[in-house]
Amino acid sequence: MKRFFVLMAIFLTIFHYTKAQKTDTLSITLENVKYPYPVKYLPVNTEGQDIKMAYMDIAPTIAANGRTVILFHGKNFGGYYWGNVIKALTANGFRVIAPDQIGFGKSSKPFIHYSFHQMATWNKKLLDTLGIQKASVLGHSMGGMLATRFALMYPEKTEKLLLENPIGLEDYKTFVPYITTDQQYQNELKTTAESVRKYYQSSYFTLWKPEYESLVDVAAGVTFSADYPRWARVAASTFTMIYEQPVVYEFQNLKVPTVLFIGKEDKTIVGKGLLTPDQQALHGQYKLLGKQTAAKIPGAKIVEFEACGHIPHIEIATEFLVALTGSL
Predict the structure, then answer these.
(1) Model pTM above 0.90
(2) Which residues form the AB hydrolase-1 domain (predicted)?
């Protein structure tokens, strides 16, 4: 009888896990995540691999003003979190392009050398393929590093550079201990919904709200996938990309109109978990970094938001969208 109850307990545990997995599991190309607008794909060949880059191409909902904005998402996100920004921009006459970078979102997850230079060339190819001669580039978080690299490489394609709480305002490798991509891969494999939620609460938002759980659901949902080790390996590779490819020394070389949108309570540090609390307190202070960065960029403007963390377009959506459309 005791053996029976033990077997029943094991069965119920497996049943509940399987049920949870079936409910929560996401594929690593997010096929089961609904994006705010239809998704298309750009074929790309790199390092002997045929891959694809997902993107949304949304027409203006009023008379077109002839201008385009391309949106570069952050490291822990994809195009799915741009819905309200796209709606606001298209309502003001803009065409909007919102790609998932290779290695992210609905795009392919190849094992390749990841670099901001390569990503910039893929985004130029996307614009060229769509017949877009020039675009304003809005980059959030990691997308801010990419947007900066894009503007440095292709100033003729960049109408304006718009940076929303970009990372890379410091050179992380000067104060964050080095770890190999393999070590970071092992860290990525430990990701859970609780670890994601804890990080988002401590770094991204000043006050946690139930609606932010949808962001956790995507980041944690892929961990149940049988293909999650591939996702984790790519995530580790892009962590190394951020660590090894700073843009902070090149802000003074920008030659396009630039606006920084800074949530002043942001304390994001790439590799934060590798630092002691005392070390963490010395870095990631966006209330200082925003002004310091604006001072480095010729003619740059800065819009600062009180009581706001890493993602203004979600945490203070109305205020951010007013500032964004006004800056355009």
Answers:
(1) yes
(2) 68-315
